[in-house]
Amino acid sequence: MAKPTKYAVLDVDGTLCPGALGVTLLQALMERGLCDLEAATAVLETLAAFGRGDIDFATMATRAYTAYARALAGRETAAIASVAASVWSQRRPALFEFVPELLACLRERGYATMLISGSPIEMVSLVAETLAIDEAHGAVFARAAGRYTGTVDLDSGAPGQKAVIFAAATADRAVDLERSFALGDSLTDLALFERVGLPLPFEPSAELTAIAHARGWTTATRASVVARCRALLDAPAPHNQTSPPC
After folding, report:
1. Measured in whole angstroms, how far is the alpha carbon of residue 140 from the centre of its chain?
2. Res. 80: pLDDT tops 70
3. Is residue 9 packed enough to be buried (19+ CB in 10 Å), middle (13-18) or exposed (0-12)?
4. How far apart are CA 246 and CA 226, in angstroms?
C-alpha cells in the first residue's frame, strides 16, 4: 500500500501576496470595459459592506460571487484570460518575500502542494504555475461555447468550501491528514484548518484570531511564518489521522 500523502494547502489572497487577486482582476476588467459595470460595482459594494460590518461573511460571499458571475456574463473566456495574465505579470512582484523559503521548507519535507483560493481560477492557476505548485483550485464561473454564462460553478471562498474542495480533490488518494498543513488568513480557511492536523493562521482576521486562540492554534506573521511552519512540521505527530483512498 502506498504511503499516505502529506499535503500543504495554501491560501493566496492576503497569505502569499497582499490584497485580493480577484478584485484586482475585476478592476482591470472595469477599466478595459470587459465586464458589466453595474454588476462589477455591486461586487465592490458588497465587499465594502462586509468591511463595514453591515453584512456577515456568508452573505458577502453569496452576493459577491453572484454579482461577479453577472459581471462576466457573455464575455469571451479568452479575453478574460488575457487580462488575467496581464494582471498577474504586474502583481507577481508583490508576492511576499517569504514565499520561496516557505515552499522550499515544504518540499524538503515531502509535502505535496496545493492552492485553494477564493479568487477566480483564471488568477489562481497563474500563481500555481509561477510557483510550481502541484495543484490549484479557485472560483469557477460557468462557461459555454467560449463565453461565460453568468452563473457560478464553484464559490471557493464561501464558508466551508475549501474543506469540500480539498476532500473532493483527494477523494481517491490516501492522505495523511494528521501531518497535512494549511496556511490562510480568514474565516474562509476555517473549515480546512479543522480538517488538517497542522493549521497555521497567517496574520489572521479578528474573527479567526479569536478562534485560533480558543483552540490553541499557533499563528504567524510574515516575519515568523517560515519558522512557525518548520516548528509545526518537525514536531512529532500525537496520533495518526489517515484517510484511505475511496
Report:
1. 12
2. yes
3. buried
4. 34
Query: Residue 3's pLDDT is what?
Result: 86
SS3 call for 148: strand
Rounded Cα distance, 85 and 108, in Å: 30
* Cα–Cα distance measured from residue 172 to residue 154, given in angstroms and rounded to the nearest whole number: 20
Average pLDDT over residues 120-125: 98
Residue 73 C-alpha cell reads as 456574463
Q: What is the Cα–Cα distance from 64 to 70, expressed in whole angstroms?
A: 10
141 three-class SS: strand
Signed CA dihedral, 64, 91, 229, 212: sign only:
negative
Query: CA distances (Å), 182 to each of 34, 95, 163, in order?
Result: 35, 18, 11
Question: What would the grid cell of residue 40 be?
Answer: 462589477
**CB 81: neighbour CB atoms within 10 A?**
14
- The answer to whether residues 148 and 74 touch, using CB atoms and an 8 Å cutoff, is yes
The pLDDT tens digits of the residues spanning 132-142 come to 999 999 999 99
Residue 49 confidence (pLDDT): 98
Amino acid at 216: G
Give the integer Cα–Cα distance in Å for 212 and 221.
14
Taking only the tens place, the pLDDT of each residue in 94-120 is: 999 999 999 999 999 999 999 999 999
Indicate the pairing of strand 112-120 with strand 135-144. parallel
Fold of 7-243: Rossmann fold (3.40.50)
Give the CA dihedral 125, 130, 131, 134, nearest 10 degrees.
40
- pLDDT of 238 > 60? The answer is no
Q: How far is CA 150 from the centre of its chain?
A: 22
